[in-house]
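Worked Example 4.2. Read the sequence first, then its structure tokens.
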Amino acid sequence: MSVAELKIQQKWEDMAQYAYVALRHIPKSERFTLGAEVRQSIWKGLRLIVRANTSRDKRKFLYELDAEIKTLQSLIRTAHSLQIIPDKKYRIWSEQLVELGRMLGGWIKSTKS
């Protein structure tokens, strides 16, 4: 496991902690629908990072992780447009996901060479 791979896992865990704080304040009507989808996506992403770290064929898991990041971005964008999460939390969370996407892009590039 390289240092870069450990960094993306740590960044993902940091994002997950932030997400749980942000999700605490969503209305009960959304807690078990959109909130549950977001939480499920977060844990799936973490599982994909761990599997990519331990697999010889990392690319399959990395591409799945890329799709999961895009799904999570879409979910929180929807939550923001429905005014379920406030602007500031949306901005911070989005920036975290963009950074994770960049890190993932670098990891994918490193597996191609």
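Now turn to a second chain, presented in exactly the same format:
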Amino acid sequence: MLLEIITPDKTIYSGEVDLIQLPGLEGSFEILDQHASLISVLKKGMIKIRDNSNKDSFFEINGGVVEVLHNKVLVLAE
């Protein structure tokens, strides 16, 4: 699935991933390939992504919003 993480200043990640773990208001949750459509608010915490070569990367955010639609995940983060 395609992931884009965008801040007010720049795009900090854009690429194909296998897994995304996000800090939701009620706890962390994961998004996998072909996930159902979703919009959720994010709190301060870490985003974990696993790319297609099984490498994990982490990004710290101060909150934001995530949208999942048609196997594309868009994170608007602070």
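Notes for the reader: The chain has one domain: 2-77. The chain has no helices and six strands.
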